[in-house]
Specification:
about 300 residues, alpha/beta, 7-stranded parallel beta sheet, 8 helices
Length: about 300
């Protein structure tokens, strides 16, 4: 009988030591977060909240370098206000492209030599809303490429690196214990992956079916990677925002002002990027260590079924 041919054995990553810089030897090294689509909106809100709790940041953007630089500067200021000293790097990349995803991981390795948290936030809406009977293949392909393929394969890259880091930390901790010295980093390296999806993962909007399909597919990423990575101590979460005030939702502000006032959401207000950022920060601080594969709704109760 052949040995080690089951699914886990076939896919199991081999432990390898990784330490790219002298920063790895300091017990005071900040944790590092890579956030896609971080120049504005929800991604910016997430970055600001992580800055408050002392995360070094890699802020990805697609085209608006000025907005990314402003977000980085605001993160540094936010961290300073809370007594933290952080670094924030900006990195242009198209997450839908393999070269872009490799660039993001490479940028993070070069800047910090470690990754503690991946936040898959980058996403797009249709360029124009269209009835599902009239929707185009071009729009469908664009949304699936950016909203699904990008985070799926970026998570794959990040997860492999995180597994290597977990194995390296375990080896270093074992060596330290054998020599009766404190383990590096104080022990307890617990990387995490968070995907920002949408209530459109389950709420049907027939004038933007491609967007709904992309978010429904994206939602499956979390249970898949949660099941695969649990043995390595890597927890995976989905945060599902509802109606959030960003430039993306600005064109439909009047519509949703009215719907919210009429009771669309039990908590009768718009959500904010800060609301989503605070949920990410709770996970980043390891406040949900016994949860993985979990969906966290940040939607004012939109998901509740009511009579």
């Amino acid at each position: 009988m052949s040995q080690g041919r089951g699914p886990r054995a076939r896919l199991r990553r081999k432990c390898s030591c990784f330490c790219a810089s002298a920063r790895c030897n300091s017990s005071r090294v900040n944790p590092v977060a890579l956030i896609t689509g971080a120049s504005r909106g929800i991604g910016r809100g997430i970055a600001l909240e992580l800055a408050k709790i002392g995360y070094d940041l890699v802020l990805n953007f697609a085209s608006n370098a000025a907005a990314a630089r402003q977000t980085a500067a605001d993160c540094l200021a936010q961290a300073k206000e809370t007594g933290k000293k952080i670094r924030a790097e900006i990195c242009p990349a198209d997450v839908a492209a393999a070269a872009g995803r490799q660039s993001l991981i490479g940028c993070t390795r070069k800047a910090f030599g470690r990754l503690d948290l991946l936040v898959n936030n980058a996403g797009v809406a249709p360029a124009a809303r269209a009835d599902i009977l009239d929707a185009t293949e071009e729009s469908f392909d664009r949304l699936l490429s950016i909203n699904v393929k990008g985070p799926y394969f970026l998570t794959q890259l990040a997860a492999k690196w995180m597994i290597d880091q977990v194995c390296s930390r375990r080896e270093n901790e074992a060596d330290s214990l054998a020599q009766n010295i404190p383990p590096p980093h104080g022990g307890g390296y617990r990387p995490k992956i968070i995907t920002i999806s949408s209530v459109s993962a389950y709420a049907a909007s027939t004038n933007r079916g491609d967007y709904c399909v992309s978010k429904a597919a994206l939602s499956m990423l979390t249970p898949l990677f949660a099941a695969r990575l649990a043995e390595h101590g890597i927890n995976v979460y989905e945060i599902r925002p509802g109606i959030i005030a960003t430039d993306m939702t600005a064109p439909v502000k009047d519509k949703y002002d009215k719907l919210i006032a009429e009771g669309l959401t039990p908590i009768q207000r718009w959500g904010t990027p800060e609301d989503v950022g605070r949920a990410v920060a709770a996970i980043a601080q390891d406040l949900l260590p016994f949860s993985t594969g979990e969906v966290i709704n940040v939607d004012g109760g939109f998901h509740l079924r009511r009579l």
